[in-house]
Fold DUF3509 domain-containing protein.
Amino acid sequence: MDRLDQLLSDTFSPYTHHLGPARPDGGRVLTLKNAEGETVLRRVIASEHLGDARRCEEAIQTIGRDLAVQEGRIGEEVIQALRQRAAQVLNYDA
């Protein structure tokens, strides 16, 4: 978990982070707090992400993007593009 703790520190500086104990499903709740100690974001990192370094990094990047959107650090056009991308369904018909 030292690598995970370092990744969280690097990604979410200047916030303090707390990774809660394992839930029954194996996931853990990540809580980010600002300098005043107020919770600014809380997300679950799924157990399958915690067990795979690449997937864990992707999950943390996604949480970082959520935080940037919440704080208004991402422009509206980027937010719209992300929403459109998320709404797309891949069609595998020939």
Strands lie at 16-19, 28-33, 39-45. The CA atoms of residues 77 and 83 lie 10 Å apart.
